[in-house]
Amino acid sequence: MFAALIAVCAILPAIKLTASGVPITLQTFGVLLAGAVLGAKRGFLAVALYMIVGFAGLPIFSGGAGGLGVLAGPTAGYLLAFPFAAALCGFLVQRIARLRTKKWHTPLIFFAGLTSSFVFIHTFGIIGLSIQLDLTLTQALMLDLAFWPGDVIKNIAMAIVATAVHRAFPDLLPRTHAGQTNGSH
């Protein structure tokens, strides 16, 4: 289901950035939501399924692209980062879910998503832009800065949705071993 959600987020109309050739889509919203809702392992696997289906040729990447040819374009680094970002977000959210007080869950999930985005998506994206567009890392970083405000907004939305899903389905997020209780600590 999350692989399909990411595909829908990717093919919805995008905002084109002419300087980098990388469009602004809702893809990262879906990727990080998969991690936040499903946890590290299942989030990684859902996003990996999306990637495999897209690399196999289904036109589910931004702009209706599909196939391995996308790896020769400016979006390659961003795409390759997606499963790892979902895994990190899921890992962090699984730890957040252990907190006894729930009032900080939404802001903490927001920071989990933003951290995952900056650690993996932006880092891989900058490297990919540098390689694919023959830019210095500084030049690629300058192009990547255009995505930061949108990422903040998408992560706010992701945190709100993930928190609502956790409230509605409290057992959906896998429990980590340390998060399970057996009556003793």
From TrEMBL:
InterPro entries (alphabetical): BioY
Keywords for the protein's UniProt record, in alphabetical order: Cell membrane, Membrane, Transmembrane, Transmembrane helix, Transport
Compartments reported by the entry: Cell membrane
Membrane topology value: Multi-pass membrane protein
Transmembrane stretches, start-end: 24-40, 47-72, 78-97, 109-133
Gene Ontology CC terms, in alphabetical order: plasma membrane
GO molecular function: biotin transmembrane transporter activity
Record flagged with keyword Membrane: yes
Chief location category: membrane
Record bears the keyword Membrane: yes
Protein family (similarity comment): Belongs to the BioY family.
Protein name as it appears in the record: Biotin transporter
Organism this protein belongs to: Hoyosella rhizosphaerae
